[in-house]
User: What shape does this take?
Amino acid sequence: MDERLEALFKPKSIAVVGASRKPGKIGFEILRNIIEYGFKGKVYPVNPKATQILGLKAYPSLEAIPEDVDMVVVSVPAKFVPDIIDQAGKKHAKVAVVIASGFKEIGRADLEEEVVRRARKWGIRVLGPNIFGMIYTPARLNASFGPKDVIPGSVAFITQSGALGIALMGMTIVERIGVSAIISIGNKADIDDADLLEYLAEDPHTKVILIYLEGVTDGRKFLRVAQRVSLKKPIIVIKAGRTEAGAKAVASHTGSLAGNVVIYSTLFKQTGILQARTVEEAFDWARAFSYLPEYKGGQLVLVTNGGGAGVISTDTLAENGVKLEAPPKSLVDTLKPKLPAFASLGNPIDVTGMISNEGFVDSVLEALKNPEVGAVMGIYCQTAVTDPMVIASKLVREIKAMGGLPKPLVLTLIGGEECYWAVTKLNTAKIPTYPMPERAATTVAAIINYSRMREEVRERLKELGDVSD
Assistant: This one.
């Protein structure tokens, strides 16, 4: 493990160069986030025109700080950054988080290369430039100018886009998705996706890694690292630049080459990476992987009270490479006496719209408990004879009594305002639930496809002698 990356996630001290006294300025917001999110280490604002900022003693330069610092956050105009790196080197900094823009993305690759050259002279790793910062919730570290109150959890998010990354930070808060880390990488002058994947693969607080990717500079390194990391944790990628127009937009955004999307998609599959088609899809999958136990094989069973929603889900699963088989006879034998005579006991199991709250919950739980079933998708359509909040409450209570989920369960609750609050309740209880059947079905498909791809990667690496049995 590179101890300098350890300093990125768990610094003992931070200097903020360009700290401002004015709310709304980036240098002020970064410093306030560090303080108010609860970072326990030492914090040094650096501003030659201030003696105190947000209650902390301010220093005119890095050299004026009486102690060494682990991390230097740089929020000054681009032309000053190389000299700041030299000053950071003299304070034995291990990592520089360069917020500043005005480098390769506007044609100043020479200035970016100079920053990296000086950093390497001092043994400093560089995150950025052209970023909004980074967050690591286990260390109560929010060194960014994004939202402050990020919810701790187990999703790590790496983004090459600053503004999109900030917006998605806000989305994680609204959607109540807990994160372990949010890392803006911008131009990737030094620290890149592969470096972060290696670190996060060993991070006990991270269960799933989500990447917004525009392009990679060292494709071999990225794929070599990714295929090993995907054996341990799911990697979900939103690949930007899928069209010619998008690829041109990528080049103008961070100066990256988007590359051929077909080649990327093929290589993602070979390395066990899940490629999401939309941001919504990526976050749907990340939520499920962060909440659920590992899928270990076995049949997928759908339980629905609405035949149409069951058909839509079946279509969506098939379009994503997952075909349903007949449910286990043992499950059919258990459910048949409990269901209306006209219920369909195929797969999906249609318990019909006449089922009661208790009947729907019981059917889902019976599928979940069946030893031949490996994963369950529950599909509920709101009816006059059922109450979605009652169903949600019963599921939460019963699953808690079971000691938690023994296998993956993904739900969709389709209906009005009551369903919205029931979905919220279930997600708060870490039972991944979605308002539309297609979203739930693509999530189930991602869980099963990840398991398949991971085994293919494992076998491929065994043939190469890269992993042990």
Observations:
- The longest strand covers residues 373-381.
- The CA atoms of residues 248 and 316 lie 32 Å apart.
- Confidence is low (pLDDT under 50) at residues 250-258.
- The domain at 150-291 is CATH 3.40.50.261 (Rossmann fold).
